[in-house]
Amino acid sequence: MKRKRGEKEEAAEKKMEIVWQTPANPPEKHDYIFRDGRRHVRPYHFEFISHVKNRWAGKTIVDLFAEEFKGRPYDYYVSAVKCGRIQVDGEMVPVSYIVKSSQKISHFVHRHEPPVMAWDVPILDKEDDVVTVWKPATVPVHPCGQYRKNTVVGVLQAEHGLAPLFPVHRLDRLVSGLLILARNATRADLFRQEIEAGKVQKQYVAKVIGVFPEDEQIVDVNVNYNAREGRSTVEVGNSCDGSPIKGKTACTKFTRIGTNGIHSIVLCKPITGRTHQIRVHLQYTGHPIANDILYLSENVTNRSSEGVNADRAAHSPNNCLVPENNSSDKYEDSTEEDFDIDPMCTNCPNLVPKGYDGHEEGLWLHCVQYSGSGWVYQCPYPDWAVPT
Questions:
Q1: 172 classed as catalytic
Q2: Neighbours of 164 (CB within 10 A)
Q3: From which domain of life does this come (predicted)?
């Protein structure tokens, strides 16, 4: 890290033995802490790198961060610039420095990742050019947002030495089940070509509110995703009134597997692949996923709250039908949970980052099968989806 520092600051950082990581630093097995049934990441020092966008140009370095990255207080950014935790083109700058377009900005932080509910990422099948896994709920597939090491790709690299990996399809962070990863770019492209050509069939299971109809239900209504709100809505087109249609065409087939009179287990076959398609289409039928707070309408929530609370379950492989050789029993709470406290960190001394409430659970939505031309990959049902 290029910058001039005072003797006191140099001594403090030397004592902490700071190693600044970048995306090029792969996750390692000792990076993880297991506590109370959750996988945590030992906080680490990380260099965020970005380049000044045109709309940022002309702002002071402190105002830029305070306005664009509101997760930390203004005073933190002042201190970070003064001590060199925020740099421009690899050099320290004054707090009054005016940034210019395309300049490189580095922000050196003590990074705390949110925990995930899973101990392990069970491997279902490993071939020369493909690996399939049971993706646990709450674990993102690849680095995004606050997550870098606490991801499916990160865990597989750290604990199984599998790299590089190319996710073939997407699963939302709160969704569990089959995840296909190619082990080279060529195989990944072949999968994607099949998916884009509509030659791949997908199957999910969901646990929904109420008694789902016995006959197959086909929902063929547009889905409109609002990125700002992070949710989708259905949009029934009406060409007669001339109103514009913003949503994308979407179709899902639903078949009831079983019901206990309070909830139903439903097989879901999405024909298209829109964001939150299954979730919002089930809401459209009047039978939303039973623990999907985002799509439980007010009347459904009141009607179903007793059932949801009574049947609340941790949605992770440790509580599902996991292949025996991938058992999570080998994981125990870590005996060594210490980590270096960074005096400038806004999350220390806590292990989890600020804003994490600790009560997150996975959705009752699980991917069970993907199939294409001459191939099929499957994942066992979770325990909540096994008919009784």
A1: yes
A2: 12
A3: Eukaryota
